[in-house]
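Hi all, long-time lurker, first post. I run a small reading group and we've been trying to get comfortable going from sequence to structure in the token notation. Rather than ask abstract questions, I figured I'd post a concrete chain and ask someone more experienced to write out its structure so we can walk through it together at our next meeting. Sequence below, copied exactly:
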Amino acid sequence: MSVELGVSSTVDEGATIGYGDGKPPVIGDRARIRSGSVIYHDVTIGDDFVTGHNVLVREQTDIGDQVLIGTQSVVDGTTTIGSRVSIQTNVYIPTNTRIGNDVFVGPGVVMTNDPYPVRTETELVGPIIEDHASIGANATLLPGVTIGEGAFVAAGAVVVDDVPPRTLAVGAPAVHRELPAPLTGENRIRR
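-- Answer (accepted) --
Happy to help. Here is the structure in token form:
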């Protein structure tokens, strides 16, 4: 089985494209996949995809156009990531997570999907991050929370409840506040 790699795409030596069982990954045009990265089978990625070094993208993941996944980040599969998304260094995204369009995920963000780790059998449900949301560095998102459209999660926040659209979540556990004027509007993800 061969990988479907778009035109003008570059894959560094030491990267693995197509790992495990299933259909070979499909990767769009102008991808830049750096050394140490592993992309499993059953992954579909749009155009202008960029990774840092040592990125892991597991099976059954769909990624849109113009997405950056930073060094040492993990997308643990069965996940959807929209277009124009910037995921910074050392981010963990668990299975069953959904990320919209024009989303920023800061360095060191941890998302979870198991409300009772190793204590009970339960459905794994990752967070939902809606369009134009921003997640600050080292924030933690608990299982099943929804970060509303245009919401902003402050650095270091621990999000235990849904964050309404266009709201600031700050603290541990996070409380909701009115979005300050400099944080209003939509994200303009640039690469």
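A couple of things your group might point at:
The mean pLDDT is 96.
The first strand starts at residue 4 and ends at 5.
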